[in-house]
Design a protein that fits this description.
Elements: E1 3-11, E2 21-31, E3 35-40, E4 46-58, E5 64-66, E6 70-73, E7 80-95, H1 97-104, H2 119-134, H3 137-154, H4 160-171, H5 178-184, H6 189-200, H7 204-222, H8 228-235, H9 240-251, H10 255-265, E8 277-280
Antiparallel strand pairs: 1-2, 2-7, 3-7, 3-8, 4-5, 4-6, 4-7
Helix pairs in contact: 1-6, 2-3, 4-6, 4-7, 7-10
Protein name: AraC family transcriptional regulator
Keywords: DNA-binding, Transcription, Transcription regulation
GO molecular function: DNA-binding transcription factor activity; sequence-specific DNA binding
Length: 286
């Protein structure tokens, strides 16, 4: 196996943050090979990440650069490659994309894989980092949640129709029609798209694509033997060709190839992590 002592916890946010924050997570992993490679797939969320450890992420120029102690994984439509070694500790805050801007405004660019953050988050990271190094994740989370609650008190919430549309897209697994949603909310399609893009950084249709894609990866990780034809129908794609085309656009590979990577990891008990992690024994530092 590539790593041992893997510890993952997911927790619900404070009730006052429930409209913006989906969950908190803490993650600790000790890699036992010289490096481990991770494929970060596009997701229908925005993540604020505090990181402690030796990890590097690939930029658009193909070079690996050290991960900063705090960064945002924003809305994106392509995978990213990350390489880590040794002990890694991560504390994450997962936001609904339509509500992240209200809490992170002027603190982060919400598009991209590893975006820089503002002075407020950098100052917070200077307090959170030492706690992560000590393994005091609960104390670190209390600091982060306190910062978010302070932001919440002065934040401008997203427009009601935007949140309602986002929640309906999630509930329908990306299947809700934008035209029908707009009509239910008393808006034209153009009005809904404009409000949604202003709040979330992407259109309702783009979010629906990401939600459907995320569900596809979850299903393939749970059952890599699933029929692609049946899965395409279940997930609301027009046909198998549409499913393959969309999946390839987000990952650079077909769903069949992704399922094959999941199967190759399953005998080692790592199937649930799917094709997101690829073990490497060589030094890949850039």
């Amino acid at each position: 196996m590539a790593s041992e002592d893997v510890r993952f916890r997911e927790r619900a946010p404070h009730p006052l943050l429930g409209g913006a924050v989906q969950s908190y997570s803490s993650y600790e992993e000790r890699h036992t090979v010289s490096t481990e490679e991770h494929r970060l797939l596009p997701e229908a969320n925005i993540d604020l990440v505090f990181h402690c450890g030796d990890a590097r992420i690939e930029g658009r120029d193909g070079r690996l650069r050290p991960l900063p102690p705090v960064f945002v994984i924003g809305v994106r439509d392509e995978p990213a490659r990350m390489v880590s070694r040794g002990l890694a500790r991560v504390l994450g805050v997962r936001f609904h994309p339509w509500s992240a801007l209200s809490l992170l405004e002027r603190e982060a660019d919400l598009r991209g894989t590893c975006t820089t953050v503002g002075a407020g988050l950098r100052a917070l990271s200077e307090r959170v980092g030492p706690l992560l190094e000590q393994g005091a994740c609960d104390a670190a989370l209390r600091l982060v949640e306190g910062w978010l609650l302070a932001r919440q008190r002065v934040a401008r919430p997203p427009a009601g129709p935007v949140a309602a549309a986002g929640l309906e897209l999630r509930a329908s697994h990306g299947g809700a029609r934008v035209g029908a949603l707009a009509g239910q909310l008393g808006l034209s399609v153009r009005q809904l798209e404009r409000q949604f893009k202003r709040a979330a950084g992407l259109s309702p249709k783009a979010l629906a694509r990401l939600i459907r894609f995320s569900r596809a990866t979850e299903r393939l990780e749970r059952d890599p033997e699933a029929s692609l034809t049946a899965l395409a129908f279940e997930l609301g794609y027009a046909d198998q060709a549409h499913f393959i085309r969309e999946f390839r656009a987000f990952t650079g590979m077909s769903p069949g190839s992704y399922a094959g990577e999941v199967r190759s990891l399953s005998p080692r008990g790592e199937g649930a992590r799917g094709a997101r992690d690829v073990n490497r024994g060589e030094d890949t530092r850039g």
